[in-house]
Amino acid sequence: MASLSTRHLLGIKYLNEEDIRLIMDTTTHFKEVINRPIKKVPSLRDITIANLFFENSTRTKISFELAEKRLSADVVNFSASASSVSKGESLLDTVQNILSMKVDMVVMRHPLQGAPVYLSRHIPANIINAGDGTHEHPTQALLDLYSMMEKIGDVRGKKIAIIGDIRHSRVALSNIFCLRKMGAEVRLCGPPTLIPRFIESQGVSVSFDLRETLEWADVANVLRIQLERQNISYFPSLREYSLYYGIDKNLLNSLNSEVVIMHPGPINRGVELSSDVADSDQSIILHQVENGLAVRMAVLFLLATGN
Ligand code: CP
Fold it and tell me: What is the rounded distance in angstroms from the CA atom of residue 292 to the CA atom of residue 289?
């Protein structure tokens, strides 16, 4: 049976093209499974998985937990706010205590970049990064890729725009790594203050012009403005951001071709996307969420069976 080249999913940068194709193929299998009348399979029976969320989440947390339950794993959930972390316990102590209870895999979201890599060097469990600070969110990039492929086929040579707050986005970096490994052309668009300097070294182009970018793109993956990560002002006001970089139906209707609209969520409605765009036929946002379940089942299955 084919297996991944790594025993953790710490970031897309650690995967090769064959790994990504294997995850896509396995996702197709699990997508068929979750659409059966009986959605549960015994693949991870006797495997125990801890979901450690040190930062808030709706989609990723629910999706991982459901994926684990659909695979018949035993699941324990941990959230930092309701734990002894609030009494000063360190990350390593917290995780080592949980692992003493014979946990096989850890899914972790953490506000600090590199926290999952740090853990992978100190504990024997398989680690899956569910988002670390502004660094990577690998399962989001994989579900984004799967959703794009469902809509436009193989992404090799296709034009994918990533629009908005690139500077603070782990989704952006994981998407860049993933799409470039799969041969897509990637263009970043947003205010100059929200595009990191020298990002072109990652093989992407940059535009500050939203209309030009949307005219160019087959797909636009629109990102949330992450006000909670901005300790200084990167633009004058949300109203001004929306005026220059918000996408509404009038703008979409005035383009020469139809662009697929994606967003990882949560959406700031009326800021980066108007509701009539987010809820339109051009948007595949809810398909992304649905595909997230199958992608996470695929990743959990491949890492557990690769051991
Ligand atoms: N897309 C995403 O990571 O959403 P959550 O923060 O709700 O998990």
Answer: 5
Any ligand 1 atom below 6 A from CB of 226: no
59 CA → ligand 1 middle, Å: 5
Beta-carbon count within 10 A of 256 CB: 6
pLDDT at position 88, please?
Answer: 81
* Domain 12-136+289-305, CATH among 3.40.50.2000, 3.90.1170.40, 3.40.50.1370, 3.20.20.140: 3.40.50.1370
Q: Which fold has domain 138-285?
A: Rossmann fold (3.40.50)
**Ligand 1, atom 3: closest residue by C-alpha:** 60
d(CA 172, CA 264): 10
Q: What is the pTM of this model?
A: 0.95
Kindly tell me if the per-residue pLDDT of 86 is higher than 80: no
224-274 pLDDT per residue, tens: 988 777 776 888 889 999 999 999 999 999 999 999 999 999 999 999 999
